[in-house]
Write a structure and sequence with these properties.
Length: 272
């Protein structure tokens, strides 16, 4: 987290108007690293749709809830374990001394094991509703609610580069990613000689020269995104030049975006 206690979210509009959001909360537990009082700042080029912002808020709520649930269950693991162990022993003794079963020991173990597992889960749900968990969950929800999106010239430029790569990539078909890799050498530079691609290279270099700090920030967000599946798998297959049927389906459903992967590669390779 930066010294000025800010966290950034970027909205990139696809050519069809649908939204892509870059934010640091893609890994499990990332909300737990968000200090209290940190401001979430949002930036866009093309103005996002209301439904896109609502979907983002719902997603961030869900991720925050998952992180708080993991956090409180980890903190209360020993009490949960002891409670479940106690229930296991009580049921085991009850089944052994009071209930006569056809298969001794096996029935007792099955019944007491099921009771202990149920007690462990129920104790976890109880702790998720305690004051400390609710307080932390509400605090994270409030930080999400307070995010404000502002128009940014920088994001306009970034969107233009993203759209250009999307146009040159065209559609993914027949398991081939060649259209996305066409024209690049091993350093990620075009060598088809067109004025358009040369202009794109200059624009990417200008992003570094004029907005080095913000470009580095976007690069880190893209790196974080591409470090989790299904983006991680899609990036690996795209760089190899062939997409599996599963990744093709993800691309067609809009769950991964090859042009965004290419944008990351080109930004990284054009860094001064």
């Amino acid at each position: 987290m930066s010294p000025d206690r800010s966290c950034w979210i970027y909205h990139l509009a696809r050519r069809d108007g649908s939204a892509l959001f870059l934010h640091p909360f893609v890994k499990r537990g990332s909300f737990l690293d968000l200090p209290a009082g940190t401001e979430l700042e949002g930036y866009y080029g093309r103005e996002p749709r209301v439904e896109s912002l609502s979907a983002l808020r719902t997603e961030l709520y869900r991720r925050a809830d998952e992180d708080v649930r993991d956090w409180i269950n980890e903190r209360r693991f020993i009490p949960r374990f002891l409670f479940a162990s106690m229930i296991f022993l009580v049921v085991f003794l009850f089944m052994s001394l009071v209930v006569h079963t056809p298969i001794p020991l096996l029935d007792e173990l099955l019944a007491s094991g099921a009771a202990g597992a149920t007690a462990f889960v129920m104790a976890g749900r109880f702790f998720e509703k305690t004051g400390v968990a609710v307080q932390r969950r509400d605090a994270l929800h409030a930080q999400v609610d307070n995010v404000l999106f502002n128009e940014s010239d920088y994001v306009h430029k970034l969107e233009n580069a993203f759209h250009h790569l999307d146009r040159t990539g065209a559609a993914v078909s027949s398991g081939s990613a060649d259209r996305y890799n066409h024209g690049y050498d091993q350093d990620g530079r075009y060598h088809d000689g067109s004025d358009e691609t040369s202009s794109l290279e200059r624009k990417l270099q200008d992003l570094w020269q004029d907005n080095r700090e913000e470009t580095q920030r976007v690069l880190e967000l893209l790196k974080t995104l591409l470090g989790v599946n299904p983006w991680k798998r899609a990036a690996r297959e795209l760089r190899r030049g062939r997409l599996s049927r599963k990744v093709e389906d993800l691309v067609h459903r809009g769950e991964v975006e090859p042009a965004l992967i290419t944008l990351y590669d080109k930004l990284r390779r054009s860094a001064p």
